[in-house]
Amino acid sequence: MAPKPKYEDGFADVDDDDASIAVSSLASRSTRRSSSRNNNSGSIEMQLAVGEKTRMMRMKFVMLGALLVFAVALGVATFFIIRQGEEQTFQREFRSYSSEIVAVTTEHVQSSIQSIEAFANSVSSYASSTGMTWPNVTMPDYTSRAIRLADLAADSRLVTVAPFVTNEDKLGFEEYARGVIHEQIQQDLDYQGITDVNATDLEGIPEVISYFNLSARQKFVEPPNSPFNPYLVNWQRYPFETPKNRIFVMNNMMRIPTIRNAVTQTRISGHAAATFFEAILGVESQIIQPIFDKVLPPGSNETKSIVGVVWVVLSWAKYFRNLLPDSGNGIYVVLKSSCGFVTTFLIRGLVAEELGLGDHHDTAYDHMEIQYDFVNFNVDGSSVPDDVCIDKLTLYLYPSDDLKANYTSSDPYVYMAVVLAIFVLTSVTFLLFDWTVRAREQKVMDRVKLQDKIVSSLFPTTFKDRLYNINDDQFDNTSTLNGSVSSALTFGSATAKKKAQRLLERDLDNPEALRGKPIADLFLETTVFFGDISGFTSWSSVREPAQVLTLLENLYGAFDKIARRHFVFKVETIGDCYVAVTGLPDPREDHAIAMARFARDCMHKMKDLTRKLELRLGPGTSDLNLRIGLHSGQVTAGMLRGERARFQLFGDTVNTCSRMETASVPGRIHLSPTTAKLLIEAGASDWIRDRPEKVFIAGKGEMETYWLETKQDSAIRRNKDFDEPSQHLRASSVHFTDDDDSTTSADSMAAEELENLRGMSKYERLIDWNVEMLSDLLRQILAARDPNVVVRANMSEAEKKIGRHGTVLEECKDIIALPKIGYKDLQIRRDPESIELPDRAVEQLHQFLSIVCDNYLDNHFHNFEHASHVTSSVLKLLTRIVQVDTTMQTSREDDLNSGVFKLTDFAGHSYGITSDPLTQFAVVFSAAIHDMQHPGIPNARMVEENDPLASKFKQSTAEQNSVEEAWKILMKDDFKDLRACIYKDEAELKRFRQLVVNVVMATDICDKELGGMRKTRWQKAFSPDVAGSPPEAASRTSLVGPSVQNVGMNEKATIVIEHLIQASDVSHTMQHWHVYRMWNERLFNELYTAYLAGRATKDPSEGWYEGEIGFFDFYIIPLAKKLHSCGVFGVSSAEYLSYAESNRDEWKKKGKEIVQEYLAKFKNRSAVAPPSSYIIPPISNERQRTVGNQKATDVAAPTLSGDNQATIPFSTTDKNHESFQDEVEV
């Protein structure tokens, strides 16, 4: 077929014959349907045509009406959107200006107050250094000093030093004043260069303490027994205003009410005070700063007395000048005093106009009010008399119409008019198009009618119908088979769409479909960034998947924002590696500088975010660091087509950058020579530091590389006087691997330096994290309680009785009965997120954990950090326990009526642990306190040393002591509100106590008797022959809590809880290799310290390697298999078993060298004085023990890696694996 010509308007010219046949087929179908009902087909066709024309006209009017409505709606919406945008801009700019006003004025005011305080201290220091006695003190060169203070305090109008003079000192001070007053006035005259007046010639200088009576407008001598004493004498003053003969000295300012009010506050609080008033020169405040008889260093307990004050008058109008550009025209600043004064300023750019007393802002902008506490000396109002007003100033900022006018324009009307004009143009275009289409359709219809007449005259009706059917089939086949796939997908039948989809899929899989030219290009000048999170693999091994994703989402989201700010193109993220590039897709000359800034900001943001996230993600999060490599050069970039098209970088530059990142160290930005050269050429040489040693780069050999200095590097260098981080890295040649967790001594040192610089405490962060975790569990406890029952039983007597009879170990039970869960229990449960804990309870929880932290000794292993690590593992295992299926499955109608039903998961998986928030809280609570006051030596050694605790507890000494001491703290009156959240009645108290006892006692795995009992209970609970029917167990031990029909479930729950804490206590052995090595080394250091202190008879390095293998084989791996076999902990049990077996194999290969490394590092450490005695600090100072010199029995070196497992002796020379297994297997 010949190509179809096109009209000028771009529409294709359809062949008349083809169109006629197509349209005639449609017309013939209408004719066929109507012929059976009416022989007059022409009449019917005419009626149909008229009806169709009418419908089309209606549709046109409806469409025009819809367009009109849409245009009006769009125009109105455009108007309001633009107007709203202007409003938002106005509000944003107002907030920005307000923030600037608040920031600048606050800083200026604080600077003024600090200058006044420094001036008062200088007066006090001068008096002390010269031996002067108050009140007979005169500052030399006072005028020059006061002028300097006035300049610092925003051109203060008045600076006066006023001593307190008692009745006893009055005559002596007046005698002293007569001798020096003219001299100090003469000094003021000389300093101001006034030579025509002498001080002795001035009149009206009083030589006794006086006061000025405003009514009489004259001075009177202060009587000896004036009620306004001690007198506050206006002694040294600037300015004297001698040209105006206004020399106000020797006045008793205590007669001025505003000053008397402020002085009263100052004398009571010992701090500065202010008073707000309106003077002739404008709204001012009087700052009263106390002068003490001595200047003491911070923290001194020595007492000091107020001997006078510095009185400074500040003018507030000066503080609001020169703050904003001219565009910031029209911001009301309302200054309100707590004593009732209110004044208003209007800031117009650089000018601040004082509107006088009262609030004069435009009330139409009340909704945009910004309030800020301006001046507050934090005076305790409880100690101030009721008639004394404590003056506190508050700023209120409001916009004005003038400011709003800067951001209001006629754009909304313009855009609305444009939208309406577009509608008019669209409507006209539509009408023209409609007229053209109708004209074309009329031509086609005329031909269809003509052809239909011809066909009807040539063929009978039946043949005509068959012909039309053939034509229809040909039309359908042509459109489906020969038409485009996209047309078939859009207009075809369901079958045609399926065929088209298959064709489309076949084309996608066909390599021929990719023969087209790909989208790709070569970029000559780029800088590539590779950033890897150091420590991420080991960190993620102890976290939930959701926590891992939370970290990555926050970090990468922050990096993405930084990338947008610096116009850096993010390529992709591969695991914990972030890849970015500058110089494409838009080339830029400063690609190296931009990437350097991006890398510095990412490094800074990394440290900031990990510290903030540590409260949510647990301890160790802030230890994560970023390791960055940068390299510059050309790259090939383009779209990699296929099922999932991606943008990719290729070339040597990318490979080199990846190796630069690998060769970097945590917390550092590693530069290739190429990138360093570009930075130097761009003038950023100050950012670059040489790396003294060459590094080996795979495929490149040894290279001289550089460091890009970060903000942290600068802070460390300024504070530690070293000029290059390379001082920490002294190896002449370093080979790097791809291990993302490899660290160097330089990194550790830099991290410690940064920690000290920021003043952060690891234990404070650990306490906050523990508070957060336990608070979440407390919310679950409160959410499970009936909100209608608000009365809590009086627990005083029950709390006194608990734990008073026998030892802690004697309280340990085989079975702890967990509460039944019924329909009503689930009905009353609320969403824990909706529960708000009482502030006092949270404060007491924080205080309790702080005391617990303080009661952990400074051991290498058994410390609060390890307890938090155990807590983290407990939380992970608790979250992995299969959650209770809340679908009720009832088997009998009476079960439903009585509110008792079966929960499949409750009986089959979690044994009620996940359904009882108190149980979960108790387990986590026990993990936090389980090693409190641990002495850093095994229980057996405490027995050998005749420790009083060993005599008291006999077995599990450290564990029993931890429970007893922690319980004593918790039962104090200081934690009454916390206890009310934990338990509400005596049954819950007993169950909580029982859980804590059982959980903490379970951490002693060295006691053969306890271990044997747990082994028997495990077999009884989980062996197939007895697992389902252990009700007889109730006869051999008492149950805590209500009676339960299915005792077997409670027995399983008890043993699962004990194994949960045991696994958590040694969780480092079942986590990433680096986590295991860190805690294993700490345990080694702890035991080696005890050995050097004479508290162990054998060097722990002897047999440590063999002991660890035995510990894995006979305790850790069997314990992990038990966790897996009980089916409670989901995938965590398989994860623990996998890590345990992997760590065991790794230790077998490297353990001997690692032990020697431990020993060498310990011996090379700075001198450690071996302790000869120690004191375990309980809450009450009850006991103190010194280590005896008796010879200990021959015991092997402690070699195990778990908490308290160091008490298990094992050595290949004196024990075999079978005896070791008998001793430790639970």
What can you tell me about this protein's structure?
Keywords: Lyase, Membrane, Nucleotide-binding, Receptor, Transmembrane, Transmembrane helix. This is Receptor-type guanylate cyclase gcy. One of its GO terms (molecular function) is peptide receptor activity. Pfam families: Guanylate_cyc, PDEase_I. This protein is α+β, with helices and mostly antiparallel strands and 1226 residues long. Helix content is 50%, strand content 13%. Strands 14, 15, 16, 17, 18, 19, 20 and 23 form an eight-stranded mixed β-sheet that branches. Strands 1, 4, 5, 6, 7 and 8 form a six-stranded antiparallel β-sheet that branches. The radius of gyration is 44 Å and the shape is globular.
Which SSEs are present, and which pair or pack?
Layout: H1 16-35, H2 41-130, H3 142-152, E1 158-165, H4 167-191, E2 210-213, E3 218-221, E4 231-232, E5 236-238, H5 257-269, E6 273-279, E7 282-292, E8 306-315, E9 329-337, E10 342-348, E11 351-357, E12 370-375, E13 393-399, H6 401-405, H7 411-458, H8 461-482, H9 485-491, H10 494-509, E14 520-534, H11 536-540, H12 545-566, E15 569-574, E16 577-582, H13 591-617, E17 625-640, E18 646-650, H14 652-662, E19 669-671, H15 673-681, E20 688-690, E21 694-697, E22 701-703, E23 706-708, H16 711-720, E24 733-735, H17 745-758, H18 762-783, H19 796-801, H20 823-828, H21 839-854, H22 864-880, H23 893-898, H24 904-908, H25 917-929, H26 939-944, H27 948-953, H28 957-970, H29 976-982, H30 986-1002, H31 1008-1022, H32 1047-1065, H33 1073-1092, H34 1104-1126, H35 1131-1164, E25 1173-1174, E26 1185-1186, H36 1217-1224
Parallel strand pairs: 17-19, 21-24
Antiparallel strand pairs: 1-4, 1-5, 1-8, 2-3, 6-7, 7-8, 9-10, 9-13, 10-11, 12-13, 14-16, 14-17, 15-16, 17-18, 19-23, 20-23, 21-22, 25-26
Helix pairs in contact: 1-7, 1-8, 2-7, 9-10, 12-13, 13-18, 16-17, 18-21, 18-22, 18-25, 21-29, 22-25, 22-32, 25-30, 28-30, 30-32, 31-32, 32-34, 33-35, 34-35, 34-36
